[in-house]
Design goal:
This protein is an all-beta fold. 0% of the residues lie in helices and 46% in strands. The strands form 2 sheets. A 4-stranded antiparallel β-sheet has the order 1-8-3-6, with no helix packed on it. A 4-stranded antiparallel β-sheet has the order 2-7-4-5, with no helix packed on it. A hairpin with a 6-residue loop joins strand 4 and strand 5. The chain is globular, with a radius of gyration of 13 Å.
Length: 101
Amino acid sequence: MAPYAKKVVDLSAILNKDEVIPPGVDIPDVTILRLPDAAKDGVFLHVGQGGDPIDLIQGMSIRITPPESGGLYVSSDAAFAGQKLSLLIGYVSGSPQPMNE
């Protein structure tokens, strides 16, 4: 089992692609712990710097094979004032550890 870190992303200021995990951390999976109702159709996850947008559903898990080391990013169609996205991010032992938030 991979070690995990919880990240909370403030959706009030994201309009472009914002970095959640920097390049250099090997990420084998991501789970969407909390996606606010207001943001259900407008928030996207990008695996790697050039990754296509992935529509998010609360509770979904994304398995990344092989693990991605190009970073993890979130984008949105609009700012969602006061809303936060919670992610559980797996990382490969021995790679830099993402900080819990």
